[in-house]
Structure formats: C-alpha cells, structure tokens
Design a protein that fits this description.
Elements (H helix, E strand, L loop, with lengths): L1 H71 L21 E2 L2 E2 L9 H8 L14 E5 L12 E8 L12 E12 L2 E13 L6
Antiparallel strand pairs: 1-2, 3-4, 4-5, 5-6
C-alpha cells in the first residue's frame, strides 16, 4: 500500500512541476512579446524624430538661401527690422527684472508655435515670421507632403542685454512631423547668423 501512495504522490509532484514550467514559459513568452512591441514603437518614434530633425535642417537651408538672396539683392542691409519682437518678451528672458513667460527658450516647440499663431488658423499672427509651417518635400505620389513642415524666424540675440548689434541675429527653425492638426514630433535648431557685407 505504501507503494501505491508513493506513486500517487509522485504523480502529483510531476503535474505540479509541469504547471510551473508551463507558467514560466508563458511568462517568458509574454515578456518577449512586450519587448518586441516596445522595440518597434521605439524604432518608429526614433524615425519620426529623425524626420523632424531633417525638416528643421531643410528649413534652415531654405531660409539661409532666402536670407542670402535678400542681402545680395540689397533689400536687407542688416537684421534690425527683421527680428521677431512680438509677442512681447519673446526675445528677452526678463522684462524689468521679471521673468518673461513668452521667452522663446522657455517654451516648448508646440507652445512657441501656438504663440505665433494664437488664432490657430495656420497663419502667423505676428510679424516678421520668415516661414510658418512651410511644406518642402514631396510624397511618394509626387504631391506636396503636408506631414513635413518647418517654421523659421529671427531673434535679436542682444535683446535681453548686451551691446545692440544689428549685423547679427539668431535664426530659429522648428521642424515638425504632423498628422492632420497634430504634431507627432518636432526639433528646434538655433543658428547664429552674422552679416558680412555680401551675404550671411
């Protein structure tokens, strides 16, 4: 009779071990599935961020060419009338010793673009803005790709203090990847420019 009881006990232990192994394999499978889906999401996010950076670079190149033509043609002699001054405080970290909430470096790209187009109609409400959500690329069908856009404007880099120098400015370019009215990713470039008598 002891032999019979021992075999039943052994069978129960074997079943318990099989259940433990199956549970461990299921947990491992779920972990791998989660890791795989997270990896593809991260890759997609990195790809979208790279597209936003490329949009900002394309915006810089296009804006640089426009600025160079403006100086070469003699339409511009310096940056003084072409830098963004509104909304008030956009170019100054402090106003009368108080922190400026509109200072462009304190704002996210989305907040900054919202300040430029407060009405939300796709047209900037302040001037001068060199480009606002400007498209530049073609999609696979040869049509304008509305997903990739850039915004560009100039900031007086001495507005917050220092000796006024109209021969230089800060070019701010924001590249975006959009889906309808939603921004999926954005990248901001800030490039110091100086007028050198024949171009920028």
């Amino acid at each position: 009779m002891n032999r019979v009881v021992k075999r039943k006990h052994e069978r129960g232990a074997g079943l318990f071990i099989v259940i433990l192994v199956a549970a461990a394999m299921a947990a491992l499978g779920l972990s791998l599935l989660t890791l795989t889906s997270t990896g593809s999401k991260m890759a997609g996010g990195l790809r979208t961020q790279e597209e936003a950076f490329n949009a900002a670079e394309a915006g810089f190149e296009a804006t640089r060419a426009v600025l160079e033509n403006s100086f070469t043609a003699g339409g511009w002699t310096d940056f003084s009338w072409h830098t963004l001054k509104l909304p008030l405080g956009i170019d100054m970290p402090t106003i009368l010793g108080l922190t400026s909430p509109a200072y462009f470096r304190r704002l996210t790209d989305e907040e900054l673009l919202g300040l430029l187009d407060a009405a939300g109609d796709g047209t900037p409400d302040v001037a001068p803005v060199l480009a606002f959500r400007q498209t530049f690329a073609l999609d696979g069908a040869g049509a304008t790709d509305a997903r990739l856009v850039y915004t560009a404007f100039l900031i007086d880099d001495e507005a917050g203090g220092g000796i006024a120098d109209p021969s230089d400015a800060l070019l701010v370019v924001i590249g975006e990847v959009r889906q309808g009215s939603r921004t999926l990713a954005s990248t901001r470039l800030e490039i110091g420019l100086a007028f050198q008598g024949g171009g920028t």
